[in-house]
Amino acid sequence: MNKTQLKLTSTEIGTLWGQYVNGTMVNCVNKYMLSIVEDTYIREVFDDAIKITENQMKQVSTFILNDGFPLPIGFTDSDINPNIKRLFSDIFCLDYLYLMAIHGLNGHVISLTTSVRKDLRDFFDTCLTDGKNMYHRTVDLLLEKGNFQRDPYFFPRANPEFIDSKKFLDGYWGDKRPLSAIEIGNISLNLKKSIMAKTLGIAFSQIAGSKEIREFLTDAVETSNDHIQILSKKLKDDNLPVPMSWETEITESTDSPFSDKLIMYHTGFLFLTSQSYHGLGLAGSMRYDLIVDYEKIILKDLTISKNWFDLMIKNKWLEQPPIAPNRKEIAKDQ
């Protein structure tokens, strides 16, 4: 049997649908950033990122349409004004592309491992290759410009060691043990993502057209800042450095290059994906205080996500993904 003639599974169509909506959103942001970036090397990376995404979206469209599903609206050039004045610095744009490359890589891995059809697996293989190349290019360029933020490091001990006491789990009473390398790695990554979410939230709150959305964004910024304070304290308590903030890389512009729909969707995307990263942080923690802190952070994420969901529905901005047939309703209509 021809593998490309297999019907898309619910997982495959859901993955493709999400790839299209998220991909068109990120592509709009990249187009705006390309229009304001002055550095030649950063411009080249953004130009290639846009070409890669547009090629991927064409292929995703073909997969969806060939199986009879309607193509999502997603985001188009009507959601951006690329000629508006600068909102971000060049180096912030590059760091944004670096972090979104990480998101993209993680998404492509999941898409590949949940796909069965050979043509889909080949496609996501290509996406992974493109994503890895983009990750390497953004890291290399950030390093070259002296703006890549390395995670904390420490000197190695002489020999392997085993945990010899339940005190290893303590975090509230007595002396806390130092953070493990796994815990530090998760804290550092979550901090970088929270700092990005906070920075974008501040920028979006300056340019959003709706007062209700600006108020939501203010709450989102405060939530991201709470996350940053909680996680930063853990590193500082062990005399470890924390990632730098990006607020100073936002201009004072109040002219919006993005539609309110795009602003809201992007904010929701960051908070929804952060729940999975915070969940990984929780799963990799072996100190009680860290576990409790991650639980608090995830709960705050859920609150913001609920408010986001309500606003998106109110403004009719949230597209419905393909859903299974309602057999009870079908039976009633007979």
TrEMBL record:
InterPro entries: DUF3231, Ferritin-like. It comes from Paenibacillus violae. This is DUF3231 family protein.
